Fold each of these.
Amino acid sequence: MKIHEDPLFTFELEREPGILRFLWTEKTAHMTDGDFTRALSLYADFAAKHRASALLVDVRNFRHQPGPEMGKWRNEVLVPRYRAAGVRRFAYVTGSDAPMPPKRSSMTAAKEPFETRYFHSLEEAEKWLAQRPCPIRSVMATYRLRPGSLGDSGVRRARSKY
């Protein structure tokens, strides 16, 4: 379902399984870094509003060349917003002519709180995003023992009581 349209991009939401699509248009060839940050900020707003756990950015029609400071801005501003929104997976659709995975750039965060992958097709990305990730759970228990409770005399005393 289309939830936002702009000359530079469109957002679509698929409530089940919680995928928020970001589709760039070819009009991005004439956009500025200000347009770019506005679009990405709005995307983060929509991710939070709709509690989308899976984000998909289709860059096949993206033509803008972001400035060198955009990667740092993304890491410092957007990544925490995606984390707060509950994002678990992030997919980029790069098209069939892009190398897989693309070389790391200033636009790719070194350490993100969600899994990020790159795909040649929309179908591949959506299939991966629709899979429910296995939650990793860990439990830590702390036991405090009384001094001497593991010694022979402590064991004998415990047995004699029961």
Amino acid sequence: MTQLFGARTATRTEEPASSSGTQRPQPTPFTFNFGNPGFDPPGSGKVPPTDGKKQGGDPQGNGPGDDGGGDDNDDDPDPDDNAIDPEEAIKAMMQGLKNRGGSSSGGKEAESVKLKPLPSAVGFRAWRNHVRSAVVSASKDPQKSFIWILEVEREDATWNSMKYETGNHETLGTKLATAVTSIARGDLGTKISLCNEEGANRGEMVSGRQLLWLVYQSYKLSQTSGALYSLVDLTTLKIKNEKGQKDDAPHSDKQLRWFVSSWDGLIAGMKTVPTEDILEEIFLRKIRNVLSLKEDLAYYDRLAGGHADKSFTFLKEACNRLLERKREHENSHSLRRVICHTSVSDTSCSFCACH
């Protein structure tokens, strides 16, 4: 950087010496702020205003030696003290750019909001989380945008309450409308197209939150309860058999992992969660055939009624412990393979007996 800028003072003009040998005029320095108003780079020599001076609205200076502010003429530091070190100037520029783009408000808004395709009913909760993240990431004010997008999920939200409003989220809402329209398919896509057309006929622009509200409503199974899943979904959930596996065959840890993840998703989507007793009865029937839970289930069966471990909590934690041990084993196994420099298909590792 030093080679790029040299060690010269930044100047407005620089005239060559005349042929008569007269002294060339002294350069007039000026201050860099690199797109960051109010920020003076190190070495600028500018002194912060004291309590007795005005910090805003000061009159314009009368010349190169007067900085305004209502103080005396020629009160600035000597020009030699105002020289900028090139490396410090670069640091100041980078800091200025960082301050402009890295703040929680006032940053640059993304050119578009990008949404993944609409999911199945089972994947709706994960997709809704994705929408929140996509909107917040595209916004120039993440915190306010997060609150703004959460309003679509409120139970008292309506089509009219999500109408287009001017303000901080004006352009973000337009980009959200484009994103929702582009991923809508089938009956929902037709409905959204009609809403956009009707709004255009009235001279009104349909907001992004209105269209997103329509999407959320399409995933509701019960308009009275507002619940995405019910007890029926919980009772019909079961561990999936692998291809060619008989119904009475023991289930693997991999199958249990899928089941526990699906169970947690159903519970989170229920407005009213069943009691512990009901959950215990349903959950126990589902995991009876998991081979790795044989010892935990044997312990559970030996317990007398009323024992603390004779509960849904114990059964669920037993599954979680098993899956956690499985993950730790898989991670350790992968690390040992790297240490031994063995491929996945190599079964001749003798260094650590990781096979």
Amino acid sequence: MNLKENIIISIECGIVSGVYKTDDEIISVSRLCKENNASSTTVVNALRTLKNAGVLVYRPGRNYIVTDKALEICENDISQLIKDKLTDIITLSVMTIRPEDDFISFFSDTEYKMLSAIMHIAAESLTAEDKKGSKKS
């Protein structure tokens, strides 16, 4: 994964995990540059990609803002990324992984953070469903 993709995933994870909500302003380009050790061109390209996907909208004077469709779009993007990564792991495991190998090493830091956020959200969702189920009983 390249730096632009890492920035995109990082922002999408922030949206899915609730760090950014509809109408929230994404942190500034300069701060994204510092946090990702990236050029402004790379950061702006990542933000434009998210804008073109319908995740963000640019408002002069307010920077990039999260749209009302962002959560659904990001959940789909991240789900697909997880499926792709799991497919890669399964393919590798059939070919090369021994039982003592560490699966975490197959993920970049950004991917690991993304998977952790998704697992946390899934656990919360299951807990909420369990609570609903116990009320019906």
